[in-house]
């Protein structure tokens, strides 16, 4: 059983139909699920602006019970890859191609 169960993303507030303006960088909310008493000790977020052909790490900060990642400006869509590890050494990687669109 993996103590880190996965995650959920929250596109910026006011986003309609899962699209975000691609003209400027934006913050993406991230929430991780985990067993009680265990939490992520490392978190790395990568984004792809070409549907997973190339990936690059983006800055991540702690925000309340979750995290925020800074996503750069882009043209069509954002694909996400999140890597997390807990204190027990368990890991999870979650990838979503075309997680949301840019306009």
What can you tell me about this protein's structure?
- The protein is an all-beta fold and 103 residues long.
- It has a single domain (4-102), classed as Immunoglobulin-like.
- It contains no helices and nine strands.
- The chain has strands at 4-10, 19-20, 26-34, 40-48, 56-58, 60-63, 66-71, 77-86, 91-102.
- The chain has a five-stranded mixed sheet, with no helix packed on it. A four-stranded antiparallel sheet has the order 1-3-7-6, with no helix packed on it.
- A hairpin with a 7-residue loop joins strand 4 and strand 5.
- It starts with a strand and ends with a strand.
- Residues 1-5 have low confidence and may be disordered.
CATH topology: Immunoglobulin-like
Order of helices and strands: EEEEEEEEE
Largest sheet: 5 strands, mixed
* C-alpha geometry: elongated
């Amino acid at each position: 059983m993996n103590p880190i169960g996965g995650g959920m993303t929250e596109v910026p507030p006011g986003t309609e139909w899962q699209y975000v303006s691609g003209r400027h960088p934006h913050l993406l909310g991230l929430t991780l699920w985990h067993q009680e008493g265990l939490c992520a000790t490392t978190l790395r977020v990568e984004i792809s602006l070409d549907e997973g052909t190339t990936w690059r790490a983006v800055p991540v900060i702690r925000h309340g019970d979750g995290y925020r990642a800074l996503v750069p400006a882009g043209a069509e869509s954002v694909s996400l890859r999140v890597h997390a590890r807990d204190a027990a050494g368990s890991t999870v990687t979650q990838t979503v191609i075309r997680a949301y669109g840019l306009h």
